[in-house]
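ENTRY TYPE: protein
WANTED: fold as tokens:
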Amino acid sequence: MPDQPLERIARWTPLFILTYFTAQFLIRVTLSGNLEIDEAQFVGETYLALGYGNSHPPLYNWLVAGCVWLMGGYWPAGVALLKNLLLAGTYLLGFDIARRVTGRALTGLILVASFLLLPQVVWKSQITLAHTTLVMFAVVAVLHAVVCIAERPDARNYLWLGLAAAIGGLAKYNFFLMLVAILIAAASIPYLRARLFTRKLAYSIALFAVLFAPHLIWAAQNIAQSTQRMAKLERSNDLFGGIDIPWLGLDGFLASLVALAAWTGPLLLAWFAIRHFSTAKPEEPSPPSSERTQAFMQLFGRSAAIGLGTFLAIVLFGDLHTVFERYFTPILITVPLWLVLAWPMEGHGRAPLHFLRLGALVALLMVTAWPAWIGFGREQLAYPYESFAATIGERASGPFAILAQQRRAAANLAIRLDRASVWEEGSRPDQVVLLWDGRQDAPPKDLIEQLGTGFEPRGAPLKMSYPYDNFSGHRAGLNAWVYARKP
């Protein structure tokens, strides 16, 4: 039997999750009005469209637009609301999966604690990532739908599967790698094959087709925009760039192994160390594993193995070179689900308590250390965009576009200036403000080339320097130059 006091505490897990992400939302909107690099890409990209380019489907843009509207047009609150809703949803669905499969709320709480030991989930997704948070939610939602179908194969649960698949397809294209991996894994397990692959699966397919087809048509008609980010995978990576075998992405494969270790390492190290040093007592046998539990353990493990193996094969034989840890998030989010079933903490003395304490410590750090870093570090969320915007607003009269070396700078200034917009290819503003690094006196050549020959400078460049909006004492420099369209 599970530890009864912990089991009672674990029943409050949904409340813990909602409280934690409410705190994260309040920290974000209280301490900073800035947008991070991934958040900034949505400024100017929230008009209603079936696609926006940049190799991403449109759902996150739509959700950003809705949340910014809900927050009265205040961008930092809008993007923070969306991100924390998605992360809270991922944690809640993960908890419910573990609770349904094992019948124990404690297993669900342990799973939630395991998410807190994954840097890409607890830190990167919270601080910088955008589309990845949505695709991670979608993968967990698909798994949740499969669990619900195994419990009760009614039309509602099959429609939930179709909706979850559509959310993933409209979130990020790499979702399909995991969707196929999950379906293959489920088909290989008799218990799940008999319950999932019935005529009612047509409900899932039909709903997915209706929701995804419009974007699929757009993507086929705009293939350059829907695949433009693929070039990132072909760039040489810094770690193994010297290893280049023709027609083989060995450097990318090695980089993938490093990223894989970094993604799963902290969780696996903590899990097996705590489990090993917490000796099971004879009167505390491990919880029995039913056929149903075994089936889902196999589903989660095989899904991760199939998805990971396919991804590594694509990198190796596709001669790809650059791989980032975030690429593994939708693939490896099933690992904690597999871990709590294959190597349960329950039945190993005080292991559940020790593990939960570690998770609680990380959660405490996330609501204390991160605000401290914003308050005292050289953090982009404390960058003095407010001061830069005030100075530029005094110099530039009338509507103008902002063309910067980094879109983040342009977006953060545009949301603060009523007359400003972010420069887009094909736009024809009468005025443009060039922005570049304060350490360079003249604007970079590529920025001038991007502006084109139809503009000429007005007045002298603005050399600005302001302290960070925190207690660090650091200063940030930014140069600006107003250009007007030639008569």
Notes: Strands lie at 400-404, 420-422, 431-437, 455-457, 462-467, 475-485. Residues 4-373 form one domain. Residues 438 and 477 are 4 Å apart (CA to CA). The radius of gyration is 25 Å.
